Amino acid sequence: MLKVESGAVLKKNQTKSIFFTLFNKYPLIIGFLALIMIFYLMEPRFLSKRNIFNIILQVSILAPLAIGETLVILTRGIDISIGSILAISSAVCGGLLLSKYNILLCCFMAIAVGAGLGFCNGITISYLGIPPLIATLAMMSIARGLQFLYTLGATLYAFPKGFRYLGTAMWFGIPAPIYLTVVVFILFHLIMKYTIIGRSIYAIGGNPEAARISGISIRKVTLLVYTISGILCAVGGMILLMRMDAMQNTAGSGIELEAIAAVVIGGTSIAEGGAGSIYMTALGTIIYGVILNGLNIVGVNPFSQRAIIGTIILVVVAIDCVIRKKRFST
Amino acid sequence: MIELLNISKYFPGTKALDDVSLTLNEFEILGLVGENGAGKSTLVRIINGIYFKDHGTIKISGQEVEMMTPYEARMIHKIAYVSQESELCPDLTVAENITLGNSGNWRKKNLFINWKAMNNFSKVLFKELDLNINSDDLVRKLKPADKQLVEIARAFSTKSKIILLDEPTSWLSEVDKKFLFDKLRLLKKKGVGIIFISHFINEILSLCDKVQVLKDGKNIGTFNTEELTKEELITKMLGQKSKKETKFSKKLSDKIFGNVVLKVDNITKANLVNNISFELREGEILGIVGLLGSGKTELAKVIFGLMKPDSGEVWINGNKQKWKTLKNSIDMGLGFITEDRKKEGIIPDLSIAKNITLANFKLIESINNIINLSKEMKISDNMIEVMNISPKNSYIKISTLSGGNQQKVIIARWVLANSNILIMDEPTRGIDVGAKYEIYNLLKEQCEHKKAIIFISSELNEILNIPHRFLVIKKGKIIREFKNGEIENEHDLLSIISS
Q1: Does A216 touch chain B (CB under 8 A)?
Q2: Domains of chain A from N-terminus onward
Q3: Do B396 and A13 touch (CB under 8 A)?
Q4: Domain range B2-243, CATH architecture
Q5: Which of B272, B345, B423, B484 could bond to B298 as cystine, CB 3.0-4.6 Å?
């Protein structure tokens, strides 16, 4: 047997572990490919270049929200206010754009609103001790109410050209928003892997007591996580404005369900904290997009979409829970 | 009345009970003794239906019982059980807790609960037992002793034929104990069969007719208490070599220590810690030993900063403990290895490397807040080498490691955090012998490097051999202090602790 340096041996184990992770996702990837196959067979246009772009564009608004929700779920929390925060930050951005303010200023204000509301969520959850479900439920109503107050129920549309450019441009044959989506995913993947805050999120999700005893401030990390979620809602809101060129009252309504679906399909566990990752959510988001788009293309009634999403969440989480229960019975 | 034959029970990683048999007759109080981890609680929980046996036979009143739920145990077989830990609902009243699971007995028109009758039942019960506990109080507000009495009262209230008590006296005063023992003797006369688990040997010998000894999940034997002396019983619990003099390394008692690094001054916390003071010097290992309810874990938590005391001060390397954040405690030089590494120690899904660096991110930071993964890997590999952690792979999840190796990772974590005062609560619990010795050597090495260690353990052999001196704690007070070598063997130590 060759005597190898410990460095080389460890590298080999690292690649082994990547394959092992993919292997774990085996059922997911198989299901994903099977789904694509089924939709393609039913309607060949499904795999046309245009439709593939369509799929990714459809989830480009959802993507940043799914990332934020991943972080929140990793810390054993939940954020159902994301749709409303998206709505209000998007409305602020849109309103300021229509008042001819500097585009960068408008974007900055949107992010500020998202961060501010996310920060409020964080304060109520980590410093006041309100359970995340209740705190974000309240914020869901509050933020939506603020949006109505600001827009007075009107639909915002006809944004300045400079802004619309990003929504409709094509760079090297690929729509611009797709680049943005990819960049956001890569950015957060790097944050989770290479920064202390990323590490802390996994730690407090995996075992809050152990993290606490090691000196990690659960309060500060939780506060940051909800603030980031708020900021990502604002990013989603801006992408919405770029792509739709209009913002309705009901913007973001129901997107919290979709975000959770994307996260759980991707394999992040709601039952247990600290298990999951950004690339898994990316996969989940794409699969979600595929399902939605596929159903549309083969002609399923769009009104049944909500029921289908709900059923998917139930089935996926049930499988996760049953597996965990089997593993740990006395 | 109850016969357990050849019972075996497995838990992931251990065999908790190995071919254990037990017989409990009517009109009898059977004591069940053994060291921590001997299997007493497990055995009793199988009788009560909380755990299912893996092998063996259970016979109740001659009839074989294959499997039963706790409900069936209580309702059909009339078995009452008082657990070691409090199993009351804190936000319900005493009366509601007494009738927990039984409230169907107090119904009006078969649909509604007759609260008046239920509360009355509880009041009458406490009056009969001559206990001064208010049935309307929320359990949350009761003192630990009263909580324990409520649980015992509940067991007495259900016309049971068999009563199982697991360490029922850990919180009770002498007066309460007398009351309990009188009641138990009365019940015995009426034909009830009672199993009494306790660490207090004197109680066992005075109350029980027979005593059964368990050791490491195996049955050592059942003996008549009339013919047994305390010494003999302890010898049976610990094994033949317990009387043999423990070997002490001469170096231990001759060592000269450095400066005082930790000063604990008159710490008091409610019913748990009662005016404890001591000092710890550089290079010293201070042992703390005590039974359940002694307050040793609470003391450790107060020192580390997890709990704020009612009064008293703690000085760490000259700095005052302010009980603000735990990061503060760690920066001052403290480290804490908790009792339960699964609950409070490891982050199961993260790798060994990530678990090792958890308490000190500065070491692996390259630029502000960015982790240098290769630096982390090097540090982790180094620690794995130094502490002989196996398998030697920084990438694998810590949950796949054995208990001993997991514990080494946690110790490595605090070594990396540069803690010069390490508080270790039951550091070798659930760890195989080989790993134990490696950990002892690690601790001794740390002392050579001027660290100081508080070594809390209920394993007598360890307490006698590892620390330079140790404190015996009972009911929150330091009752004795011994230097290494002053007590000759485990037998004598247990005698002192369980008096």
Answers
A1: yes
A2: 55-317 (1.10.3470)
A3: yes
A4: 3-Layer(aba) Sandwich (3.40)
A5: B272
Show residues of chain B in contact with A194, CB under 8 Å: 370-371, 373
Nearest Cα residue to B255 out of B465, B439, B437, B448: B448
Domain ranges for chain B: 2-243, 250-497
Containing A170, the helix (H) or strand (E) segment is: strand A170-171
State whether ipTM is beyond 0.85: no
B48 contacts in chain A (CB < 8 Å): none
The reply to whether residue B336 touches residue A213, judged by beta carbons under 8 angstroms, is yes
What's this model's pTM, rounded to 2 decimal places? 0.82
For residue B80, give both structure tokens. Answer: 């009452």
Q: Respond yes or no on whether the N-terminal peptide bond of residue B309 is cis (omega within 30° of 0).
A: no
The Cβ of residue A44 has, within 10 Å, a number of other Cβ atoms equal to 11
Is A24 an interface residue toward B (CB < 8 Å)?
Answer: no
Q: Which residues of A touch B347 (CB under 8 A)?
A: 202-203, 206-207, 210-211, 274
Same fold, B2-243 and B250-497: yes
What CA–CA distance (Å, rounded) separates B78 from B161?
5
Q: Is A195 in contact with B348 (Cβ distance < 8 A)?
A: no
- The Cα of A211 is separated from the nearest Cα of chain B by a number of Å equal to 8
What residue of A is the nearest CA neighbor of B46? A330
- CATH H-level superfamily of B250-497: P-loop containing nucleotide triphosphate hydrolases (3.40.50.300)
Sequence-distant (≥ 6) Cβ neighbours of residue A249 within 8 angstroms: A147, A148, A151, A153, A155
